[in-house]
Amino acid sequence: MPKAKSRWKTLTSRSTKPPSLSTRATKFTCRFTKPIRIEEFDAEKAWWGTEADGFAARVENERAWKVSIEQIKAANYNLDQKNPHAAEVVSHDPDELLADYARLQTEVQGLRDQLKSILAQSLGAKA
After folding, report:
1. Nearest residue to 84 (alpha-carbon basis) of 71, 97, 74, 73
2. What is this structure's pTM?
3. Cβ atoms of residues 72 and 79 within 8 Å
4. Cβ distance 59 to 66 under 8 Å?
5. What is the DSSP string of 36-89?
6. What are the sequence ranges of the domains in the chain?
7. pLDDT digits (tens, 9 = 90+) for 27-48
């Protein structure tokens, strides 16, 4: 039984050059995601501005902000800085969630005791 030709041998037998990236990309398409359209970057292009005016159109907003070199140095040159305009992110750490749950249960128990006390006083006064 003859050996099956490898994909590379099949491709090289047709051409002396290896397949280009564009050839490979056209052969394998993803059917599960929606591709990014160039129009989706219109807001970024408008914000970016032009070199002719020295990028004067760039202003800080909720998606773009300045980070000082001191902040970058303090973060040990980690450029993954959190957005200062973003809402507070809820932690999903189990230890933090359990601590919050215990605190809330303590508050609830305090409110129950307070309600019992008020009801006991109200009912005791009418008796």
Report:
1. 71
2. 0.37
3. yes
4. no
5. PPGGGGHHHHHHH--TTTTTTT----SS-----HHHHHHTTT---PPPTTSPPP
6. 39-87, 90-127
7. 555 567 888 899 999 988 888 8
Question: 110's torsion region: left (phi>0), alpha (psi -120 to 50) or beta?
Answer: alpha
Residues 49, 57: Cα–Cα separation, whole Å: 6
The residue that leads in pLDDT, 49 or 19, is 49
Paired tokens of 112: 């129950």
Tokens of 127: 């008796």
Q: Please name the residue that has the structure tokens 């050059």.
A: 17
**Is the separation of the CB atoms in 48 and 55 below 8 Å?**
yes
pLDDT of residue 101: 96
The reported pLDDT for the residue numbered 22 is: 53
Higher pLDDT, 76 or 57: 76
Question: Rounded to an integer, what distance in angstroms lies between the CA atom of residue 104 and that of residue 100?
Answer: 6
